[in-house]
Amino acid sequence: MKKYFAEMVGTFVLTLLGCGTAMFLGCATPAGVVGTAIAFGLSVVAMAYTIGGISGCHINPAITLGVALSGRMSWKDAVGYWCGQIIGGIIAGAVLLALVNIVTPSAGGCAFGTVIAENMTGLGCNGVANAGGPLGACLVEIIATFIFVLVVLGTTDEKVGAGNFAGLAIGLTLILIHLVCINLTGTSVNPARSIGPALFAGGQALCDLWVFIVAPLIGAALSALVWKCFSCEKCSEK
After folding, report:
1. Which domains does the chain have, with CATH numbers?
2. What is the rounded CA–CA span in Å between residue 104 and residue 115?
């Protein structure tokens, strides 16, 4: 149970800090995009070195799927991880909504405050419009998640991984992915990070939520397949 609880806490921190930064900075300017990307990446780095020794710090159902398909964990544990991650994302979504209710009433007093209030209404949710609709968003999220989970599987491999530097490599990769994808889909690559805010934002965010659940899981499955091919190649070379 301790590792499931760790996954819940880690996902809560990632969703709260990443989506919270998107809410306060907004993503309509280069500074907002860069700031949000860094927030997500640094959240992963911080949690990797905090709970990595307890649960491995997946804090992402897509990563858990990739790890399970690679045979590195049992499906029983995978289900426990998914439950913890989704609960953590939902708690973070509730806290973000509470922040909206606290900040919005006092935000109308100045122009800058009004901009913040407008940014916060989406709770850092993902969207499909800028990617050309659901199919375009699916393609973006599949590719982005494939790259991200492949890095996770490679850097955490017991034989050829990056060891203690894995958390840093994973966090930096997440920053890069956000820089590319924020203006397309808001960047999910993590169903739990999308579920929490969407449940409380409702509306179109909730209608589009399936994209940010299905696409990352497909991307993760593909990355597990590719990494298995790499692993088989290593074995044959030996």
Report:
1. 2-232 (1.20.1080.10)
2. 10
